[in-house]
Structures are given as C-alpha cells and as structure tokens.
Amino acid sequence: MKRLHAYLLLFVLGSLAFLLVACGGAEEEVAESEGAESEDGEITKLVAGTDATYAPMEYIDEDGEIVGINIDIVDALAEELGIEVEYRNIGWEPLFPAVDNGEVDFAVSSITITEERQKEFDFTDPYYVANQLILVPEDSNVEGFQDLKDLRVAVQISTTGHEVVQKLLGETSPQILAAETMPLAISEMINGNADAAVGDNATVHEYMVSNPDVAVKTIEDDEFEKEFYGLMVKKGNTKVLDLLNEGIQLIKENGKLEAISGFDINEHLDE
Ligand code: ARG
Fold first, then answer.
1. Is CATH 3.40.190.10 the classification given to domain 45-129+228-266?
2. Does ligand 1 have an atom closer than 6 angstroms to the CB of 132?
3. Average model confidence (pLDDT) for the chain?
4. Ligand 1 neighbour 55 (Cβ under 6 A)
5. Dihedral angle at the C-alpha atoms of 66, 71, 72, 77, nearest 10 degrees?
6. 84-89 and 43-50: which strand pairing?
7. Ligand 1 centroid to residue 159 C-alpha, Å
8. DSSP run (H or E) holding 99
9. Which is it for the CA torsion 4, 7, 9, 11, positive or negative?
10. Does the beta carbon of 53 sit less than 6 angstroms from any atom of ligand 1?
C-alpha cells in the first residue's frame, strides 16, 4: 500500500513537471524568432515575414517557394552581409503583430513607409518606389480617381490603397470592399461586386498582363502620391535595422538593387 502511494506521488509530480515544461516552451516559441547569432553576438540568420499574395513583389511559385522582386532584393542584401534569411508566409494583417511580438525579425512585403506606421515600427531606408493604380473592366467609363466617388471599390484591407479610397469615399463607407488579399479584391471586381480595384501599381499591372483573357484596363492618376517601400522591424530593434540598412547601402553601391528593381531609387528620393 505504501509503495502504491509513493508511485502515485511520483506520477503526479512527474506529470506536473512535464506540464510546466510543455507550457513554458510553448510560450517562448511564439515570442521568439528562430534567427541566429554567432558566439560574438553577430547576426548570422534572420527570419522574415511576408504576405506572399502580391505578385510580382512577393508570392508563392509553382514549387511552393516564396519568391518575387522583394525577395530577390532581400536575398541580394543578405548575400552581401553574409547572413541567411528564412522567409515565412504570415499574411498581411497578422504580419504587423508578428513583427511586434518577435515571431519574425523583420517584414518584407511591399510595405509603404507611412507616418502612421512609423509610430509603431521602425523602417529601413526606402529601397523601392510605387504608386496606386486603378483596375477597372475594359468597358468602364472611369478615367481618374475622382470618378470612383459613386462607385464600389475593392482594396486589400489596411493597405495604403485602402487608405486613399477611404479618403475619397469616407472611412466607413459601405462602397468600400476591403478584402484580405489583393487577388481577392480583384476577384470582387471581376465578379461584379465592385466597379474598380485599387492597389500598388506593380501588382495591379501584373494581374492584367498575366490574365490576358480577362477584359480589364488600368487607370493612372497624378493624384496618387509616390510611395516608398521599406523593410519593417520592431520599434527600437536597432541591431536588425542597422544591419538591413547596411545591406541596402551595399546593394545600392554594387548596382544590384538597380538591376533587380529596374530603376535607380536615388533618383526618386532626390525629388
Ligand atoms: N504598399 C501597400 C501598403 O503598404 C500594400 C502592400 C501590400 N503587400 C502585400 N504583400 N500584400 O499598404
């Protein structure tokens, strides 16, 4: 009988210890990226989060790999720095908390540097220029941004495209269809649930050229301001920020950034 008690006690204690370890471990996993440092504290690997639904900038290819112009840019700077970068497809809205809670070390996702976002995150130097572009059915009468005033407009939620459309139609306008991804926003337009879609030029343009059988056209408007993409890190993470900036500087100097993006970012910055 005594023996049985002792066994029971051991069993209960053992289970408790197991539970404690299991729970503790789980908590840490969420809070820490799997980036790595060498013994002397130098960064050797970073984990980058993205929303890989934004061809040609960041998307999943036929082999299931995260690829795109932004990925090429980060790979190029990582090569110059001699570090490894692992990419994770996090999604758009969850990307911001993922950077904030340290699940990823930085975000690369065509993220426009805005004053609003700079309050909560730190951004690298701008490395890519973009602007909003309107996509409408080929037979649409829309000629410019102001023509969208009485129409239903699809955007990707919480993007700069969403913001500009909110400014035109009102922040909570029921005419705005805010989809989880840009391809879904474009589908709303193709299906007739929206009259137009608004998003970053490269992605909107890519949709049109890769779907030649869909009768759509793009509309530019000077009203749209220039937007600059930056890599985004947790506020105050100067170690990662400085390293990424150093990498951007290196691929500016060796011409790789220009070769990948097709333009000289400095020309746009000087204006
Ligand atoms: N440049 C826009 C913004 O920052 C859209 C970026 C969307 N990126 C993406 N991978 N879905 O709001």
1. yes
2. no
3. 92
4. no
5. -140
6. parallel
7. 5
8. helix 95-100
9. negative
10. yes
Residues 190, 208 contacting (CB under 8 angstroms): no
d(CA 207, CA 188): 14
Q: Is the CB of 111 under 6 A from ligand 1?
A: yes
- Contact indicator for 251, 257 with CB cutoff of 8 Å: yes
Q: Are 68 and 55 in contact (CB under 8 A)?
A: yes
Q: What is the pLDDT of residue 34?
A: 85
Task: Give residue 118's pLDDT.
Answer: 98
Say which range, 8-12, 23-27, 170-174, 195-199, has the weakest mean pLDDT. 23-27
Residue 168 CA, ligand 1 centroid: distance in Å: 19
Give the whole-angstrom CA distance, residue 7 versus residue 5.
Answer: 5
Q: Which residues contact 209 (CB under 8 A, 6 or more apart)?
A: none
Give the Å distances, CA to CA, from 235 to 54, 110, 117: 25, 18, 10
**Would the pLDDT of 238 be above 80?**
yes
Which has the closest alpha carbon to 111: 98, 100, 123?
A: 123
Digit-coded pLDDT (tens) for 21-75? 554 444 444 557 889 999 999 999 999 999 999 999 999 999 999 999 999 999 9
For residue 11, pLDDT beyond 90? no
pLDDT above 80: residue 247: yes
150 Cα–ligand 1 center, Å? 25
Residue located via tokens 């990498």: 247
CA–CA separation, 223 and 80 (whole Å): 38
Q: Which of 246, 240, 231, 229 is nearest to 102 (CA)?
A: 240
Cα 4 to ligand 1 centroid, rounded to whole Å: 63
Domain 132-219 class, CATH top level: alpha beta
Chain region(s) in the chain for CATH 3.40.190.10: 45-129+228-266, 132-219
